[in-house]
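re the bet — no i am not wrong, look at it urself. input seq straight from the record:
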Amino acid sequence: MKFVAEIDIMPRPELLDPQGKAVLLGLEHLGLDQINNVRIGKHITLHLEAETEEIAREKVDKACSKLLANLIMESFAYELQQA
């Protein structure tokens, strides 16, 4: 079976996000001072094949925890759909 995983990787909420702070300052300079917080992360789309959805989830979890996300500083969440 073919699957598509849509993965979002974000900095952990308790950590500072320097990129987000820089964008927030830029938005304030544009007159958009109603925006009070920006967090910047990554979005990754994986296409994979697996025998079952459970096996596909195991593969995505492994990819995220071993390579795609730095679990000390980032968290990840994903949606898995059959392609």
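see?? Residues 2-82 form a domain with the Mth169; Chain: A , fold (CATH 3.30.1280.10). told u. also The mean pLDDT is 97. so pay up
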